[in-house]
Give the backbone structure.
Amino acid sequence: MIEHVLDLGNQLKKDLETSNDFVVDSYKDLLIIGMGGSGVAGDVLKLVLNETTQINVEVRKTYGIPRTIAERRPKCLFISYSGNTEETLKAVNDAIKYDLDWSVISSGGQLLELASENKKQYVKVPTGLQPRAAFGIMTKAVMHFVSLDTDGKYLKLCNQAGDYLNEALGNQTENELLSHALKISEEISTKTSVIYGGTPLTYLVAQRWKTQINENAKSKAFVGYMPEIHHNEILSWEANKQDSKNNYHLLFLRSPNENSQISKRFELTKKIIGDKVEISEIENISSDNIISNLFHLTLIGDLVSVYMAENLNIDPYDITAIEELKKLLKE
């Protein structure tokens, strides 16, 4: 898995295949449906559109399209790396039933077949990866669907972010970023990770850290959003304080773009509960390129999860429990 993490920069720079005469018409309402490692790419597109447009964006991670949503007549984007994700395919059938406008991102499978049969726009991504290992490619794919991006600005931002990651990983024998990620993985060890973000971007990355720790290291992890955690979760460290100290590790994903009150809240959190749980802070870069900002923290988290797997003698590729669940659902 480490080779895929180190390849994130090249993934962001990869040119992808699209349907013939690929054009994305403008839309005011976008419904994105995808699960797991595919669905997080939808979260990235929502982040970008929320930062730059007035478009209403909803990311849905479950079965189907309710009639109430269909009545809004949203543009739909279905994302499934394999093309065979059960929940996503159900939603495509609903889009066909409701005669909605839709497009897809996939490496193949039933989803790409349906797009071709119905003459819908698509972006085809390369095969051969587990969905979570294709995050750079899937991010590049969703940037094709920024409808106002007539000059390909966001595709260029992906390429620039790819160059940044490759440069950041340039000297792997004496690389501070790799050393930092290894240190964090050792600090977490067998503990449960709790990851806090304080901006839309850092909270999105916190969720990526969680799922990578879940899947690669087969370890428990949870997320929180500052300042919401100050209205509830901050109290959870009071009971059984020794258990918290021994079994949890708190991670703050920090951003130079935080609201000043958010920054103050992070500092006060350390003051109030710093004696009850170990805390690590991970600082983000400050760049005009939102994709670079996103992938700097993403890269660290992906590395942490892989190093955790190595430390715990865990196979990051093993998804036996997920596959068994799929088999039981079919029965």
